[in-house]
């Protein structure tokens, strides 16, 4: 990839955008052999083991969040990306179904906000799961059927609700952050050496097989000293991690179900994007979870509860062709509060109410050179 990156630099073009488009290409399909796959432990001179702090999280606390003991986690860093940590699926076998169910059934409920609220009344978007259950759980008759609300869902915001227009959070648009996700986030950040992480905002992205996420930096949070956490569930994806500039050639890596990424330190403000969704490897992820959801090795006071067979049927149908990404952010530093008015540079942008997915591939030029969803 570096040769290609160098030649693009010579032509003065945006290296990140070129590589993004390369991974989005349908014909001929991209060469995925450059993408790092942490789950395979493929030898790469770019990968280094990440130092965790197993003493910061007891086995019981990890277990309550549905995680394996920290000493068993496979965590990696990447040379040239200080503060970036990739944890290859640290979840206990039977806990992923719970988090998937939360993303589809629980976090989609009011008072959380979703893209459907932009065009529909709160009563219409009250029960996205319930309204989608019937048609999703019955095999398609072959005829083109109207899309369910779950299939139309693109994003949900939690806690301080991200405003896509102004690219800000505000004190007035806040609802309680889910306690279970707060707890999970706390265990992971603690294991990674951040003791005081406070999950205050969440963005859930729902990807269909042809979705993508444009090139961006997450800089709207007021405190960048705390990490940004990202969880992947369902189908796999290619993640591109660049640098502080668009000319920095990004590194491509696979994200599989259960994988967790932490962006902290310098990497906290690096450009990144998801150019494409790729099928989960056989026996690897979503499908492997089938049947594991009821069998319960869960602790008594676990935040992770068993998932009913009925719920799991719908979840597994959904993730057979979808990916769910959860990002968790701390917005304010200790003792920090929101400024009276948002900074000017965050107010004069064009409308982004549909979220990243409709940004197109290049948020700087505003060009939408690919339809991110059909
Ligand atoms: C985000 C983000 C990446 C992903 O929501 O800001 O970068 O893996 N998500 O979907
Ligand atoms: Mn992001």
UniProtKB/TrEMBL annotation:
Residues given in the record as Fe cation binding sites: 216, 218, 272
GO CC term (a single one): cytoplasm
GO biological processes: DNA repair; oxidative RNA demethylation; positive regulation of gene expression, epigenetic; regulation of translational initiation by tRNA modification; RNA repair
Region (Disordered): 333-374
Origin: domain of life: Eukaryota
Record keywords: Dioxygenase, DNA damage, DNA repair, Iron, Lyase, Metal-binding, Multifunctional enzyme, Nucleus, Oxidoreductase, RNA repair, Transcription, Transcription regulation, Translation regulation
Biased composition regions of type Basic and acidic residues, renumbered to the chain: 346-366
A Pfam cross-reference name: 2OG-FeII_Oxy_2
Catalyzed chemical reaction(s): an N(6)-methyl-2'-deoxyadenosine in DNA + 2-oxoglutarate + O2 = a 2'-deoxyadenosine in DNA + formaldehyde + succinate + CO2; an N(3)-methylcytidine in mRNA + 2-oxoglutarate + O2 = a cytidine in mRNA + formaldehyde + succinate + CO2; an N(1)-methyladenosine in tRNA + 2-oxoglutarate + O2 = an adenosine in tRNA + formaldehyde + succinate + CO2; 5-methylcytidine(34) in mitochondrial tRNA(Met) + 2 2-oxoglutarate + 2 O2 = 5-formylcytidine(34) in mitochondrial tRNA(Met) + 2 succinate + 2 CO2 + H2O
Domain Alpha-ketoglutarate-dependent dioxygenase AlkB-like: 146-329
GO MF entry, a single one: class I DNA-(apurinic or apyrimidinic site) endonuclease activity
EC number: 1.14.11.33, 1.14.11.51, 4.2.99.18
Main localization, broad class: nucleus
Cofactor binding description: Binds 1 Fe(2+) ion per subunit.
Cofactor: Fe(2+)
Localisation per UniProt entry: Nucleus
Gene3D superfamilies, sorted: Alpha-ketoglutarate-dependent dioxygenase AlkB-like
The keyword DNA-binding is assigned to this record: no
Subunit description: Monomer. Interacts with DNAJB6.
Name the UniProt record assigns to this protein: Nucleic acid dioxygenase ALKBH1
């Amino acid at each position: 990839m570096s040769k290609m990156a160098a030649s693009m630099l010579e032509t003065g073009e945006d290296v990140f955008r070129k590589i993004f488009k390369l991974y989005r290409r349908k014909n001929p399909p991209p060469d995925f052999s450059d993408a790092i796959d942490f789950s395979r432990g493929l030898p790469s001179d770019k990968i280094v083991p990440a130092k965790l702090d197993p003493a910061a999280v007891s086995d019981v606390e990890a277990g309550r969040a549905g995680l394996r003991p920290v000493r068993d986690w496979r965590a990696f860093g990447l040379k040239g990306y200080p503060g970036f940590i990739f944890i290859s699926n640290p979840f206990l076998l039977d806990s992923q179904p719970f988090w998937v169910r939360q993303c589809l059934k629980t976090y989609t409920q009011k008072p959380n906000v979703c893209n459907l609220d932009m065009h529909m009344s709160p009563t219409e978007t009250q029960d996205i799961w319930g309204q989608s259950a019937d048609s999703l759980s019955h095999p398609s008759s072959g005829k083109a059927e109207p899309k369910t609300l779950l299939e139309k869902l693109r994003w949900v915001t939690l806690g301080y609700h991200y405003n896509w227009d102004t690219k800000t959070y505000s004190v007035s648009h806040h609802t309680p952050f889910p306690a279970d996700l707060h707890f999970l986030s706390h265990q992971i950040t603690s294991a990674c050496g951040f003791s005081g992480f406070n999950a205050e905002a969440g963005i859930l992205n729902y990807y269909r097989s042809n979705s993508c996420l444009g090139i961006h930096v997450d800089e709207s949070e007021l405190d960048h000293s705390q990490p940004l956490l990202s969880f992947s569930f369902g189908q796999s994806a290619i993640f591109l991690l660049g640098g502080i500039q668009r000319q920095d050639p990004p590194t491509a890596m696979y994200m599989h179900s259960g994988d967790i990424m932490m962006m902290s330190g310098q990497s906290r403000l690096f450009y990144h994007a998801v150019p494409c969704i790729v099928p989960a490897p056989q026996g690897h992820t979503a499908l492997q979870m089938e049947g594991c959801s009821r069998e319960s090795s869960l602790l008594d006071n676990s935040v992770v509860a068993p998932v009913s067979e009925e719920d799991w049927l719908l979840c597994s149908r959904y993730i057979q062709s979808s990916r769910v990404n959860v990002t968790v952010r701390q917005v304010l530093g200790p003792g920090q509060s929101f400024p009276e008015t948002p900074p000017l540079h965050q107010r004069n942008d064009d409308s982004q109410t549909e979220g990243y997915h409709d940004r197109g591939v290049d948020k700087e030029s505003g060009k939408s050179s690919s339809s991110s969803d059909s």
